[in-house]
Amino acid sequence: MAFVAAYSWHQSQTGPAPVAVAKVYRVELFVSDDAGFGQGVGAQPRYSVLVDGVLQSSANISLPAFTPIELIIVNNDTRTNPASDDMGAVDGAVGGKVVFNYTNDGRTYGSVPLSSVPADQLSHTFTIPQLGVSIPVTPFSVVVAHLYFDKTGTFYWMCWCPCGYEAMVTPGWMSGQVTVHAP
To answer: Taking the alpha carbons of 103, 58, 63, 122 in that order, is the dihedral positive or negative?
Structure first.
């Protein structure tokens, strides 16, 4: 998670330094499809957060309020999960759409802005019900969503697609908390 500055040049490159016109907070989530759950339970999917180049638990995610957020979800899970059509709708993203980048073998095969995904193509969601956010995630893809929160607090996040009971009820796997704090 990090701030990324967008710059605007007012003069040639030999002029004054660039002036920041907006700060965008970037958060990267990764979905693995073969995380060992233990206790006699087979592999389960799991969200992790990339922080300073290291994957960490997604049990507690911290995001700034009143700041543009770029959410990037890298899904390495190739499976689809049982879902209803309403689970595929994009909710709470700026502009009502997210960009799906379909990947395979480390290569991108298309970049498509969509406002919904058919139920039979869903792998997971990143959903924060109290903030009206639901971002559908397709198998083996990179999903980019832009978010903006105008209130602070601690909220529950979850994967809305039934993707493994143990993972869905265990914080840091397919559920957890999002704390939206003052910038």
So the answer is: positive
Spatial separation of the C-alpha atoms in residues 80 and 163, rounded to whole Å: 9
Structural element, H or E, at residue 166:
helix 165-168
CB-CB contact of 175 with 166 (8 Å): no
For 86, phi then psi, to 5°, come to -65, -20
Does pLDDT of 5 surpass 80? no
Report residue 51's pLDDT band, with 50, 70 and 90 as the boundaries.
very high
The pTM of this model reads 0.85
Q: Measure the CA–CA gap between 121 and 136, rounded to whole angstroms.
A: 9
Please give the Cα distance from 20 to 35 (Å, whole number): 40
With b meaning 16 or more CB within 10 Å and e meaning fewer, what string describes 25-40?
bebbbbbbbebebeee
Domains, the chain, in order of start with CATH, read 2-181 (2.60.40.420)
Instruction: Judge whether residue 13 has pLDDT over 50.
Output: no
